[in-house]
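Exercise 7b. Backbone tokens:
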């Protein structure tokens, strides 16, 4: 099923606002460097939650044979609807065209169109595409895939602020994006005010909340350094408290994500997209609690 169908299937459109009836659940995974069987085992444990699709990340400019094997296995052998991610800064129009042809032949219906991070060595950059809106435009003109794009409730790290970033988000939507998947966040108020700002900017497509269960102190520190993500003080204190106690930290992360998701469900958010980090335990505990 296409993104545009998934998020409108049971929605009641009320004065241009999407009213949400049932949680639309999806999972993000990454292609493992080795032992993909472990990923398949974790995903088989999550299958009972009937995800709308599994999204598969890509490294900047790279769709190698290994990640294609994972994509094919998820789709053909495990029967999942899949949404591969596609970045454009380190690759050419020709390669992108070939990849789009390949996934359409596989029967893939959806794609997450991204710019990707600018490489440290800018010589690795290809100049066919500069921003994600150009990729969205290219995909819309050359395929009938349903296109998702990234959104940043606290503003993208390169943007002066969230307002400038939303102006650029509008370019992706005008080019043909049909759903916005947000970067993970821990402060729901920031997400709610982002939705308001996006709607005020005249963008009416579904906004899907990115949720990442906390698994380790190291993971959080790395993320905060790479992206603009606020960790509320009470949460930061708990992460610090349990930093050397993996199980307690993981349980605390589950509780926090449940609290976040319940609030989002009450606010009738269009969907919950879980950053699973290829692990099923926390996500399944959260879903047992909230569904
Ligand atoms: P863009 O939308 O192009 O925005 C990039 C920056 O440029 C922003 O600051 C924006 O405000 C500005 N901008 C945008 N358009 C214009 C324009 N026309 N003119 C001037 N300025 C502009 N990365 C990966 O490598 N692989 C993945 O699989 C992956 N998956 C992701 C999934 C999600 C849900 C999210 C939120 C991010 C993901 N990323 C992934 C990270 C993403 O590639 C980076 O955040 C990247 O730096 C920006 O990509 P984008 O598509 O948001 O870029």
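Sequence design result:
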């Amino acid at each position: 099923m296409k993104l545009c169908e998934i998020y409108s299937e049971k929605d009641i459109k009320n004065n241009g606002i999407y009213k949400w009836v049932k949680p639309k659940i999806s999972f993000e995974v990454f292609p493992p460097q080795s032992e993909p069987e472990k990923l398949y085992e974790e995903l088989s444990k999550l299958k009972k939650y009937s995800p709308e699709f599994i999204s598969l990340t890509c490294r900047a400019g790279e769709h190698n044979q290994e990640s294609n094997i994972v994509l094919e296995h998820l789709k053909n052998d495990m029967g999942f609807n899949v949404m591969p991610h596609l970045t454009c800064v380190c690759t050419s129009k020709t390669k992108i065209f070939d990849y789009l042809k390949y996934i359409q032949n596989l029967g893939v219906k959806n794609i997450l169109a991204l710019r990707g991070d600018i490489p440290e060595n800018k010589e690795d950059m290809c100049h066919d595409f500069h921003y994600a809106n150009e990729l969205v435009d290219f995909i819309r003109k050359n395929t009938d895939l349903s296109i998702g794009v990234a959104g940043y409730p606290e503003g993208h790290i390169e943007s002066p602020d969230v307002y400038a970033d939303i102006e650029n988000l509008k370019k992706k939507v005008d080019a043909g994006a049909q759903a916005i998947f947000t970067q993970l966040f821990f402060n729901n108020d920031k997400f709610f005010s982002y939705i308001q700002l996006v709607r005020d900017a005249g963008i009416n497509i579904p906004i899907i909340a990115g949720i990442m269960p906390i698994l380790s102190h190291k993971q959080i520190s790395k993320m905060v350094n790479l992206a603009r993500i606020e960790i509320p003080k009470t949460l930061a204190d708990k992460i610090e408290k349990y930093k050397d106690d993996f199980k307690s930290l993981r349980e605390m992360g589950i509780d926090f994500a449940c609290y976040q998701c319940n609030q989002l469900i009450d606010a009738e958010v269009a969907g919950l997209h879980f950053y699973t980090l290829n692990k099923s335990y926390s996500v399944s505990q959260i879903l047992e609690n909230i569904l």
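Instructor comment: The first helix runs from residue 3 to 6. Residues 3-290 form a domain with the TIM Barrel fold (CATH 3.20.20.220).
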